[in-house]
Structures are given as C-alpha cells and as structure tokens.
Amino acid sequence: GDSPLLTKPGINTPRKDNTPLLQCTRHMCPVRVHWHVKLNYQKYWRVKIAITNFNYRMNYTDWTLVVQHPNLNNVTQVFSFSYKPLLPYGSI
C-alpha cells in the first residue's frame, strides 16, 4: 500500500482527486531503469532500456542515462533518443 508519508502536506500533497504525486514502490526509488538484451548475435547485440518516473510532481524531460559496457566502444546505431559518448580523458 501507499506510505502515510505520501499524504502529509508538502511536496507530496495529493491532488484534488486524492491521488498521490509519488507512487509508492517496493524499491523506494522515484525512478526505475529497466534494461534487457533483446538480440545477442556474434557480430552485434541490441539492448532495450526503459526509464519510468514514479514522481508525478517532477517532469524529468532532460534525462541523462550513463551506461558502461566494453562493447559500447563500438556503438553503430542508437534508436529513440540522443546518444553522446562520454570521453573522460578526451583525446589523449
């Protein structure tokens, strides 16, 4: 069930229809990142990543998701969102 903290006045005050603005989850985190390997072939692989926002008061329109994996050095195509590699040391 929902935590009694969600009904206290303040940042998580319910809306007029009494629905909380922060969904109570088992992991107690306002966001969830779910990923799994969709295709795993010898020459390439495809991963699906989904980000879910459980804090209905916050509109996270500018997401930054950092993923680290050795095969990401050879990324050839990205779908549905902008991709920019992080180069921690720049060009050496």
TrEMBL record:
<dbReference type="InterPro" id="IPR056900">
    <property type="entry name" value="COB_C"/>
</dbReference>
<dbReference type="Pfam" id="PF25079">
    <property type="entry name" value="COB_C"/>
</dbReference>
<dbReference type="GO" id="GO:0052324">
    <property type="term" value="P:plant-type cell wall cellulose biosynthetic process"/>
</dbReference>
<keyword id="KW-0732">Signal</keyword>
<feature type="domain" description="COBRA C-terminal">
    <location>
        <begin position="18"/>
        <end position="86"/>
    </location>
</feature>
<dbReference type="GO" id="GO:0005886">
    <property type="term" value="C:plasma membrane"/>
</dbReference>
<dbReference type="GO" id="GO:0010215">
    <property type="term" value="P:cellulose microfibril organization"/>
</dbReference>
<comment type="similarity">
    <text>Belongs to the COBRA family.</text>
</comment>
<keyword id="KW-0325">Glycoprotein</keyword>
<dbReference type="InterPro" id="IPR006918">
    <property type="entry name" value="COBRA_pln"/>
</dbReference>
<protein>
    <recommendedName>
        <fullName>COBRA C-terminal domain-containing protein</fullName>
    </recommendedName>
</protein>
